[in-house]
Amino acid sequence: MSATLKIGSENCDIKDDVSSSDAPVLFKTHTDEIPAVISKDRLVTFSKESENITIEVDNRPNHSEEAPLSQTNLLLASTLVCDAKNGRLSNFIPSDQCVRLYLIYHHWGLSYMLYFFIILHHAIAICEDPAVEGYHLPYWVTMCVEFACILFYLFRLLHCASFLPAETFCRDKKNILVIAAIILTAIDMSCYIGLVNSGYAYIAYRWSRPLRPLFIVNFSESKQVRRAFRNIRKTLPDILNVLVLFFLSISLFSLMAQKLFQKRNLKYPDGKPYFNNYFDIYFQLYVLVTTANNPDIMMPAYDSNRWFAVFFIAYLIICLYIFMNIFLAVVYNNYRKHLKNEVRKLVYMKRKSLAKAFDLLKVKKDGVFVIDFKRFNVLLKMIPPARSPMMVNILWYVLDTDGDNAVEKVDFLQLADLLNVTVSEVTDRRSIFDLITPSCFHSKFSMSLRQLVAHTSKYVNVFVFLFLFSPYSLQI
């Protein structure tokens, strides 16, 4: 979904690419206002009665429009909106330090470093013994590289533990699998180094290599891979009944084929016995479902008696065209059902994060909790990428459905989807000639030439093309 914005001096027209015939919508822009932001949101009052001094800490939230906005609440609200936009689970500790550590953890630089170390960790298998010919390296080189990868995994794990609640971190299965893989890999490396240095290199074997794919799946950056595996795991029990029925049907046809062809002493073209063993028959009929051995598997029986073709035709109709289509339909329906549940959970998680952000920024206006433009403006300044004031006005206009200059909670819950919409501003599309030589680009000759080239008539473009590349113009 994309939208094109044409920005003028005072008003802004919103035009959709699909429906260009609609009338433009006009609205007035807001100034770039920012509310008062304070570092602390607790008020301390002193009262003295007789000889005692009472200190009261006022923790009651002030939801008036003139109330200052806490820096911690602003940072926490912007992080919650970013998580809702990117589909992340906001389970960090809601404190200023933990939120900043959480933002550093999800920085794109650290994410790309994780991808680099994961690729490097899997790529060293090419150079490890037994290595690909021509790529063998000494074991201490690959050990040093793998040790660096393990250290970075451990750093990411400890970084994640710094902003998560201890109970949440310890109960997370992903973290348990990563810790187990790190410990087993360290034990394997120690055993391998000890065996090689003690003269037992012929029995040294790296048995921890199959654990390396666990690092791909169990970090937070691989949530899409985990979601796909989770849907497949949930789909398997639902399709088990159809799968068992399919294999039983192949077993029945295998038994029938054994009774039909076993005593006829048929041979394959290479001289081997034809359908003499039950398990061989089962495997050949299983392959026939894929039509990989069709019609070769049928030809010895067909050469003996043409009526035997009826057996194979019935088998293909039942197992290939009926059972396989039923199996495909069951897999598709169950996978789609579990995928819908995943999407519902994702939408619920988005709305929960946005609801928390709304509660941190809300003010009371006419007895209703809303967000005014000042707080909305400073919120968008905290959410990357940077947006122009006109873009902020566009987003505010879309969310302010009733036009009362305030966004209610129901409208605010659509902010994450709105931020994911790709929007381009027409004013940003400046030609390189306009940037280098604006006077020449806006001259009368240049404007006339641009109008001629951009003319809608195809005949004018054809005429200009023929004129520029005619033999007479080339001689000039």
TrEMBL record:
<dbReference type="InterPro" id="IPR018247">
    <property type="entry name" value="EF_Hand_1_Ca_BS"/>
</dbReference>
<dbReference type="GO" id="GO:0005216">
    <property type="term" value="F:monoatomic ion channel activity"/>
</dbReference>
<feature type="domain" description="Ion transport">
    <location>
        <begin position="111"/>
        <end position="337"/>
    </location>
</feature>
<dbReference type="GO" id="GO:0016020">
    <property type="term" value="C:membrane"/>
</dbReference>
<feature type="transmembrane region" description="Helical">
    <location>
        <begin position="137"/>
        <end position="155"/>
    </location>
</feature>
<protein>
    <submittedName>
        <fullName>Two pore calcium channel protein 1</fullName>
    </submittedName>
</protein>
<feature type="transmembrane region" description="Helical">
    <location>
        <begin position="102"/>
        <end position="125"/>
    </location>
</feature>
<keyword id="KW-1133">Transmembrane helix</keyword>
<dbReference type="Pfam" id="PF00520">
    <property type="entry name" value="Ion_trans"/>
</dbReference>
<keyword id="KW-0472">Membrane</keyword>
<dbReference type="InterPro" id="IPR011992">
    <property type="entry name" value="EF-hand-dom_pair"/>
</dbReference>
<dbReference type="InterPro" id="IPR005821">
    <property type="entry name" value="Ion_trans_dom"/>
</dbReference>
<keyword id="KW-0106">Calcium</keyword>
<feature type="transmembrane region" description="Helical">
    <location>
        <begin position="278"/>
        <end position="295"/>
    </location>
</feature>
<feature type="transmembrane region" description="Helical">
    <location>
        <begin position="307"/>
        <end position="332"/>
    </location>
</feature>
<feature type="transmembrane region" description="Helical">
    <location>
        <begin position="239"/>
        <end position="257"/>
    </location>
</feature>
<feature type="transmembrane region" description="Helical">
    <location>
        <begin position="452"/>
        <end position="474"/>
    </location>
</feature>
<feature type="transmembrane region" description="Helical">
    <location>
        <begin position="176"/>
        <end position="203"/>
    </location>
</feature>
<keyword id="KW-0812">Transmembrane</keyword>
